[in-house]
Design goal:
mainly alpha; 80% helix; membrane
Length: 393
Protein backbone atom coordinates (compact mmCIF):
# COMPACT_ATOMS: atom_id res chain seq x y z
CA UNK A 1 0.00 0.00 0.00
CA UNK A 2 2.83 2.36 0.92
CA UNK A 3 4.56 1.55 -2.34
CA UNK A 4 1.41 2.41 -4.28
CA UNK A 5 1.13 5.68 -2.35
CA UNK A 6 4.75 6.56 -3.11
CA UNK A 7 4.27 5.70 -6.78
CA UNK A 8 1.22 7.96 -6.89
CA UNK A 9 3.09 10.85 -5.25
CA UNK A 10 6.06 10.39 -7.57
CA UNK A 11 3.74 10.41 -10.58
CA UNK A 12 2.07 13.61 -9.36
CA UNK A 13 5.49 15.21 -8.81
CA UNK A 14 6.84 14.34 -12.26
CA UNK A 15 3.71 15.49 -14.09
CA UNK A 16 3.52 18.75 -12.12
CA UNK A 17 7.23 19.47 -12.69
CA UNK A 18 6.72 19.07 -16.44
CA UNK A 19 3.79 21.49 -16.25
CA UNK A 20 5.87 23.83 -14.08
CA UNK A 21 8.59 24.19 -16.73
CA UNK A 22 6.26 24.45 -19.75
CA UNK A 23 3.16 26.38 -18.56
CA UNK A 24 3.65 29.87 -19.94
CA UNK A 25 0.86 32.37 -20.47
CA UNK A 26 -0.72 33.15 -17.10
CA UNK A 27 -3.51 31.56 -15.02
CA UNK A 28 -6.04 31.08 -17.82
CA UNK A 29 -3.43 29.29 -19.93
CA UNK A 30 -2.44 27.20 -16.88
CA UNK A 31 -6.04 26.00 -16.50
CA UNK A 32 -5.95 24.93 -20.14
CA UNK A 33 -2.72 22.99 -19.60
CA UNK A 34 -4.20 21.33 -16.51
CA UNK A 35 -7.36 20.33 -18.37
CA UNK A 36 -5.39 18.81 -21.20
CA UNK A 37 -3.03 16.90 -18.92
CA UNK A 38 -5.17 15.86 -15.96
CA UNK A 39 -8.64 15.51 -17.50
CA UNK A 40 -8.22 14.62 -21.17
CA UNK A 41 -4.90 12.78 -21.19
CA UNK A 42 -4.57 11.12 -17.77
CA UNK A 43 -8.26 11.09 -16.77
CA UNK A 44 -7.44 11.71 -13.12
CA UNK A 45 -10.80 13.46 -12.80
CA UNK A 46 -13.89 14.00 -14.93
CA UNK A 47 -15.01 17.23 -16.59
CA UNK A 48 -17.61 18.02 -13.92
CA UNK A 49 -15.17 17.65 -11.02
CA UNK A 50 -12.61 19.80 -12.80
CA UNK A 51 -15.13 22.57 -13.51
CA UNK A 52 -16.26 22.46 -9.87
CA UNK A 53 -12.68 22.78 -8.67
CA UNK A 54 -11.94 25.70 -11.01
CA UNK A 55 -15.11 27.46 -9.83
CA UNK A 56 -14.04 27.09 -6.19
CA UNK A 57 -10.57 28.48 -6.88
CA UNK A 58 -12.01 31.47 -8.78
CA UNK A 59 -14.16 32.13 -5.73
CA UNK A 60 -11.24 32.17 -3.27
CA UNK A 61 -8.55 34.85 -2.88
CA UNK A 62 -5.11 33.78 -4.04
CA UNK A 63 -3.52 32.31 -7.19
CA UNK A 64 -6.37 30.40 -8.86
CA UNK A 65 -4.23 28.18 -11.10
CA UNK A 66 -1.97 27.15 -8.21
CA UNK A 67 -5.01 26.34 -6.10
CA UNK A 68 -6.47 24.21 -8.91
CA UNK A 69 -3.16 22.34 -9.12
CA UNK A 70 -3.16 21.80 -5.35
CA UNK A 71 -6.77 20.63 -5.47
CA UNK A 72 -6.04 18.11 -8.22
CA UNK A 73 -3.09 16.80 -6.21
CA UNK A 74 -5.32 16.46 -3.13
CA UNK A 75 -8.00 14.57 -5.07
CA UNK A 76 -5.36 12.26 -6.55
CA UNK A 77 -3.10 11.69 -3.53
CA UNK A 78 -4.57 13.36 -0.44
CA UNK A 79 -2.94 16.27 1.37
CA UNK A 80 0.59 15.03 0.49
CA UNK A 81 -0.51 14.86 -3.13
CA UNK A 82 -1.49 18.53 -2.95
CA UNK A 83 1.89 19.47 -1.47
CA UNK A 84 3.78 17.51 -4.12
CA UNK A 85 1.68 18.99 -6.95
CA UNK A 86 2.36 22.49 -5.60
CA UNK A 87 6.11 21.93 -5.35
CA UNK A 88 6.39 20.53 -8.85
CA UNK A 89 4.40 23.33 -10.47
CA UNK A 90 5.90 26.20 -8.46
CA UNK A 91 9.58 25.50 -7.77
CA UNK A 92 10.95 25.86 -11.34
CA UNK A 93 9.90 29.51 -11.53
CA UNK A 94 10.87 30.12 -7.87
CA UNK A 95 14.42 28.91 -8.57
CA UNK A 96 14.67 30.98 -11.76
CA UNK A 97 13.49 34.19 -10.07
CA UNK A 98 15.73 33.72 -7.02
CA UNK A 99 18.73 33.34 -9.35
CA UNK A 100 17.67 36.47 -11.25
CA UNK A 101 17.35 38.42 -7.97
CA UNK A 102 20.82 37.31 -6.85
CA UNK A 103 22.21 38.47 -10.20
CA UNK A 104 20.50 41.86 -9.81
CA UNK A 105 22.06 42.27 -6.36
CA UNK A 106 25.51 40.99 -7.33
CA UNK A 107 26.00 42.97 -10.53
CA UNK A 108 23.94 46.09 -9.74
CA UNK A 109 21.78 45.74 -12.83
CA UNK A 110 19.25 48.41 -11.81
CA UNK A 111 20.29 50.94 -14.47
CA UNK A 112 20.79 48.47 -17.32
CA UNK A 113 18.96 49.07 -20.58
CA UNK A 114 17.41 45.62 -20.58
CA UNK A 115 15.98 46.27 -17.09
CA UNK A 116 14.28 49.35 -18.54
CA UNK A 117 12.91 47.11 -21.28
CA UNK A 118 11.48 44.68 -18.71
CA UNK A 119 9.70 47.57 -17.01
CA UNK A 120 8.05 48.46 -20.33
CA UNK A 121 7.09 44.79 -20.72
CA UNK A 122 5.21 45.16 -17.42
CA UNK A 123 3.20 48.02 -18.96
CA UNK A 124 2.14 45.84 -21.91
CA UNK A 125 1.36 42.78 -19.79
CA UNK A 126 -0.77 44.60 -17.20
CA UNK A 127 -2.64 46.56 -19.91
CA UNK A 128 -3.44 43.25 -21.61
CA UNK A 129 -4.60 41.74 -18.30
CA UNK A 130 -6.83 44.75 -17.54
CA UNK A 131 -8.64 44.55 -20.88
CA UNK A 132 -9.29 40.83 -20.55
CA UNK A 133 -10.49 41.08 -16.97
CA UNK A 134 -12.66 44.16 -17.58
CA UNK A 135 -14.56 42.46 -20.39
CA UNK A 136 -15.34 39.48 -18.18
CA UNK A 137 -15.76 41.03 -14.73
CA UNK A 138 -17.40 44.42 -15.45
CA UNK A 139 -20.04 43.71 -18.15
CA UNK A 140 -22.77 46.01 -16.71
CA UNK A 141 -23.05 49.59 -15.43
CA UNK A 142 -23.22 48.54 -11.77
CA UNK A 143 -19.91 46.69 -11.87
CA UNK A 144 -18.30 49.38 -14.03
CA UNK A 145 -19.27 51.87 -11.30
CA UNK A 146 -17.73 49.67 -8.59
CA UNK A 147 -14.53 49.47 -10.65
CA UNK A 148 -14.48 53.26 -11.05
CA UNK A 149 -14.89 53.70 -7.29
CA UNK A 150 -11.94 51.33 -6.74
CA UNK A 151 -9.77 53.30 -9.20
CA UNK A 152 -10.50 56.66 -7.56
CA UNK A 153 -10.13 55.42 -3.97
CA UNK A 154 -6.85 53.55 -4.50
CA UNK A 155 -5.29 56.39 -6.49
CA UNK A 156 -6.19 59.10 -3.98
CA UNK A 157 -5.35 57.06 -0.85
CA UNK A 158 -2.44 54.79 -1.71
CA UNK A 159 -2.21 52.40 1.23
CA UNK A 160 -2.65 48.66 1.60
CA UNK A 161 -5.52 49.37 4.04
CA UNK A 162 -7.35 51.31 1.32
CA UNK A 163 -7.25 48.28 -0.96
CA UNK A 164 -8.60 46.00 1.75
CA UNK A 165 -11.36 48.51 2.54
CA UNK A 166 -12.28 48.81 -1.13
CA UNK A 167 -12.54 45.02 -1.47
CA UNK A 168 -14.73 44.70 1.65
CA UNK A 169 -17.01 47.59 0.67
CA UNK A 170 -17.33 46.26 -2.88
CA UNK A 171 -18.27 42.84 -1.50
CA UNK A 172 -21.03 44.47 0.56
CA UNK A 173 -22.32 46.48 -2.42
CA UNK A 174 -22.26 43.36 -4.61
CA UNK A 175 -24.13 41.48 -1.90
CA UNK A 176 -26.87 44.15 -1.94
CA UNK A 177 -27.12 44.55 -5.73
CA UNK A 178 -26.69 40.97 -6.96
CA UNK A 179 -28.09 38.90 -4.07
CA UNK A 180 -31.06 37.77 -6.14
CA UNK A 181 -28.86 36.19 -8.85
CA UNK A 182 -29.73 32.52 -9.17
CA UNK A 183 -27.18 29.76 -9.78
CA UNK A 184 -28.22 27.04 -12.19
CA UNK A 185 -25.82 24.31 -11.06
CA UNK A 186 -27.39 22.05 -8.42
CA UNK A 187 -24.98 19.12 -8.69
CA UNK A 188 -22.95 17.80 -5.75
CA UNK A 189 -19.22 17.06 -5.74
CA UNK A 190 -17.14 14.83 -3.48
CA UNK A 191 -13.76 15.90 -2.08
CA UNK A 192 -11.47 13.63 0.01
CA UNK A 193 -11.06 15.96 3.01
CA UNK A 194 -13.01 15.81 6.28
CA UNK A 195 -14.87 18.87 7.52
CA UNK A 196 -12.92 18.68 10.79
CA UNK A 197 -9.55 18.97 9.02
CA UNK A 198 -10.95 21.70 6.79
CA UNK A 199 -12.11 23.68 9.83
CA UNK A 200 -8.61 23.47 11.36
CA UNK A 201 -7.12 24.85 8.10
CA UNK A 202 -9.58 27.75 8.03
CA UNK A 203 -8.91 28.53 11.71
CA UNK A 204 -5.17 28.55 10.98
CA UNK A 205 -5.69 30.84 7.98
CA UNK A 206 -7.56 33.48 10.02
CA UNK A 207 -5.39 32.93 13.10
CA UNK A 208 -2.18 33.73 11.21
CA UNK A 209 -3.83 36.79 9.68
CA UNK A 210 -4.40 38.10 13.23
CA UNK A 211 -1.29 36.79 15.04
CA UNK A 212 1.43 37.68 12.51
CA UNK A 213 0.94 41.50 12.70
CA UNK A 214 1.05 41.24 16.51
CA UNK A 215 4.27 39.19 16.42
CA UNK A 216 5.69 41.71 13.96
CA UNK A 217 5.18 44.56 16.43
CA UNK A 218 6.30 42.62 19.50
CA UNK A 219 9.48 41.01 18.14
CA UNK A 220 10.71 43.53 15.52
CA UNK A 221 12.37 40.62 13.67
CA UNK A 222 12.84 41.37 9.97
CA UNK A 223 11.95 37.86 8.79
CA UNK A 224 8.65 37.91 10.74
CA UNK A 225 7.86 41.32 9.23
CA UNK A 226 8.59 39.96 5.77
CA UNK A 227 6.54 36.79 6.39
CA UNK A 228 3.62 38.91 7.61
CA UNK A 229 3.70 41.17 4.54
CA UNK A 230 3.77 38.28 2.09
CA UNK A 231 1.16 36.26 4.00
CA UNK A 232 -1.23 39.23 4.10
CA UNK A 233 -0.71 39.92 0.40
CA UNK A 234 -1.42 36.28 -0.45
CA UNK A 235 -4.54 36.37 1.72
CA UNK A 236 -6.16 39.45 0.18
CA UNK A 237 -5.65 39.02 -3.56
CA UNK A 238 -8.76 38.40 -5.63
CA UNK A 239 -8.31 38.03 -9.37
CA UNK A 240 -4.98 36.29 -9.83
CA UNK A 241 -1.31 37.12 -9.95
CA UNK A 242 -1.44 40.56 -11.56
CA UNK A 243 -3.52 41.92 -8.69
CA UNK A 244 -0.82 41.03 -6.13
CA UNK A 245 1.38 43.71 -7.75
CA UNK A 246 -0.18 46.75 -6.00
CA UNK A 247 -0.31 44.96 -2.65
CA UNK A 248 3.35 43.95 -2.80
CA UNK A 249 4.38 47.36 -4.09
CA UNK A 250 2.66 49.08 -1.15
CA UNK A 251 4.16 46.63 1.33
CA UNK A 252 7.80 46.80 0.24
CA UNK A 253 8.65 49.88 -1.86
CA UNK A 254 7.53 52.75 0.46
CA UNK A 255 9.10 50.95 3.43
CA UNK A 256 12.45 50.93 1.62
CA UNK A 257 12.87 47.14 1.37
CA UNK A 258 13.70 47.59 -2.34
CA UNK A 259 13.56 50.33 -4.96
CA UNK A 260 10.72 50.80 -7.41
CA UNK A 261 13.09 50.15 -10.32
CA UNK A 262 14.21 46.83 -8.86
CA UNK A 263 10.59 45.92 -8.09
CA UNK A 264 9.39 46.52 -11.65
CA UNK A 265 12.42 44.83 -13.20
CA UNK A 266 11.53 41.69 -11.29
CA UNK A 267 7.90 41.96 -12.32
CA UNK A 268 8.98 42.08 -15.95
CA UNK A 269 11.28 39.09 -15.44
CA UNK A 270 8.41 37.15 -13.84
CA UNK A 271 6.63 37.27 -17.20
CA UNK A 272 9.48 35.30 -18.76
CA UNK A 273 9.22 32.26 -16.52
CA UNK A 274 6.52 29.57 -16.56
CA UNK A 275 4.31 28.76 -13.60
CA UNK A 276 2.32 31.06 -11.27
CA UNK A 277 2.98 34.80 -11.20
CA UNK A 278 2.87 34.69 -7.39
CA UNK A 279 6.44 33.37 -7.55
CA UNK A 280 7.34 37.03 -8.09
CA UNK A 281 7.43 37.01 -4.28
CA UNK A 282 10.50 34.76 -4.41
CA UNK A 283 12.31 37.48 -6.38
CA UNK A 284 11.41 40.17 -3.84
CA UNK A 285 12.42 37.97 -0.91
CA UNK A 286 15.74 37.11 -2.53
CA UNK A 287 16.50 40.78 -3.30
CA UNK A 288 15.85 41.62 0.36
CA UNK A 289 17.50 38.67 2.08
CA UNK A 290 19.18 36.27 -0.34
CA UNK A 291 17.94 32.82 -1.29
CA UNK A 292 16.68 32.22 2.24
CA UNK A 293 14.47 35.28 1.91
CA UNK A 294 13.22 33.95 -1.42
CA UNK A 295 12.11 30.68 0.17
CA UNK A 296 10.47 32.44 3.14
CA UNK A 297 8.59 34.74 0.75
CA UNK A 298 7.41 31.80 -1.36
CA UNK A 299 6.11 29.88 1.65
CA UNK A 300 4.42 32.96 3.11
CA UNK A 301 2.60 34.09 -0.02
CA UNK A 302 1.36 30.61 -1.00
CA UNK A 303 0.43 29.42 2.51
CA UNK A 304 -2.95 31.24 2.50
CA UNK A 305 -3.84 29.59 -0.83
CA UNK A 306 -2.99 26.20 0.62
CA UNK A 307 -5.02 26.69 3.80
CA UNK A 308 -8.00 28.11 1.90
CA UNK A 309 -8.24 25.33 -0.69
CA UNK A 310 -7.90 22.63 1.96
CA UNK A 311 -10.31 24.48 4.24
CA UNK A 312 -13.09 25.07 1.73
CA UNK A 313 -13.19 21.93 -0.44
CA UNK A 314 -15.75 20.13 1.78
CA UNK A 315 -17.98 23.23 2.07
CA UNK A 316 -17.92 24.32 -1.57
CA UNK A 317 -21.27 22.83 -2.59
CA UNK A 318 -23.09 24.90 0.03
CA UNK A 319 -21.23 28.10 -0.85
CA UNK A 320 -21.55 27.99 -4.62
CA UNK A 321 -25.32 27.56 -4.52
CA UNK A 322 -25.77 30.62 -2.27
CA UNK A 323 -26.79 33.61 -4.46
CA UNK A 324 -25.80 36.13 -1.76
CA UNK A 325 -22.23 34.80 -1.64
CA UNK A 326 -22.07 34.91 -5.44
CA UNK A 327 -23.33 38.50 -5.39
CA UNK A 328 -20.58 39.58 -2.98
CA UNK A 329 -18.00 37.90 -5.19
CA UNK A 330 -19.26 39.77 -8.27
CA UNK A 331 -18.69 43.05 -6.41
CA UNK A 332 -15.18 41.99 -5.36
CA UNK A 333 -14.24 40.98 -8.91
CA UNK A 334 -15.33 44.38 -10.23
CA UNK A 335 -13.21 46.13 -7.58
CA UNK A 336 -10.23 44.01 -8.63
CA UNK A 337 -10.39 45.56 -12.11
CA UNK A 338 -10.30 49.05 -10.60
CA UNK A 339 -7.38 48.21 -8.29
CA UNK A 340 -5.46 46.86 -11.27
CA UNK A 341 -6.11 50.03 -13.30
CA UNK A 342 -4.81 52.08 -10.37
CA UNK A 343 -1.65 49.96 -10.21
CA UNK A 344 -1.27 50.30 -13.97
CA UNK A 345 -0.97 54.07 -13.58
CA UNK A 346 1.19 54.01 -10.46
CA UNK A 347 3.77 52.57 -10.14
CA UNK A 348 3.92 50.86 -13.55
CA UNK A 349 3.19 53.69 -16.00
CA UNK A 350 4.71 56.55 -13.99
CA UNK A 351 8.08 54.82 -13.60
CA UNK A 352 8.32 53.19 -17.05
CA UNK A 353 6.93 55.52 -19.73
CA UNK A 354 9.11 58.62 -19.69
CA UNK A 355 9.40 59.52 -23.39
CA UNK A 356 7.35 59.08 -26.59
CA UNK A 357 9.70 56.29 -27.70
CA UNK A 358 8.89 54.38 -24.49
CA UNK A 359 5.18 54.57 -25.26
CA UNK A 360 5.78 53.50 -28.86
CA UNK A 361 7.77 50.48 -27.69
CA UNK A 362 5.08 49.59 -25.13
CA UNK A 363 2.47 49.72 -27.93
CA UNK A 364 4.54 47.29 -30.00
CA UNK A 365 4.90 44.87 -27.08
CA UNK A 366 1.17 45.12 -26.29
CA UNK A 367 0.33 44.35 -29.93
CA UNK A 368 2.63 41.32 -29.88
CA UNK A 369 0.80 40.01 -26.84
CA UNK A 370 -2.78 41.01 -27.60
CA UNK A 371 -3.17 41.06 -31.39
CA UNK A 372 -0.47 38.74 -32.72
CA UNK A 373 -0.93 36.28 -29.80
CA UNK A 374 2.80 35.67 -29.38
CA UNK A 375 3.96 33.70 -26.28
CA UNK A 376 4.82 35.87 -23.25
CA UNK A 377 8.45 34.73 -23.22
CA UNK A 378 8.88 36.10 -26.77
CA UNK A 379 7.48 39.45 -25.63
CA UNK A 380 9.84 39.49 -22.62
CA UNK A 381 12.93 38.74 -24.71
CA UNK A 382 11.88 41.42 -27.22
CA UNK A 383 11.43 43.87 -24.35
CA UNK A 384 14.87 43.15 -22.89
CA UNK A 385 16.63 43.47 -26.27
CA UNK A 386 14.60 46.55 -27.20
CA UNK A 387 15.45 48.16 -23.85
CA UNK A 388 19.16 47.71 -24.55
CA UNK A 389 18.77 49.27 -27.99
CA UNK A 390 16.75 52.21 -26.61
CA UNK A 391 19.45 52.88 -24.01
CA UNK A 392 21.95 53.39 -26.84
CA UNK A 393 19.84 56.03 -28.57
Amino acid sequence: MKKNKLQTLLEILLVSIRLGVTSFGGPIAHLGYFHEEYVRRRKWMDEKSYVDLVALCQFLPGPASSQVGIGIGVMRGGVMGGIVAFLGFTMPSVIALILFALAVNEFDLGDSGWIKGLKIVAVAVVAHAILGMAQKLTPDIQRKSIALFAVVATLLWQTAFTQVGVILLSAFVGFLIFKQNKTEDASISKFPISRGFATICLALFFGLLIILPILREVTSLSWIAMFDSFYRSGSLVFGGGHVVLPLLEQEFVPAGWLTEETFLAGYGAAQAVPGPLFTFAAYIGAVISGWQGGLIATIAIFLPAFLLILGTLPFWDVLRRNPKINGALMGVNAAVVGILISAFYHPIWTSSIMKPVDFAFAAILFSMLSFWKLPPWVVVITGAVGGMLLSMI
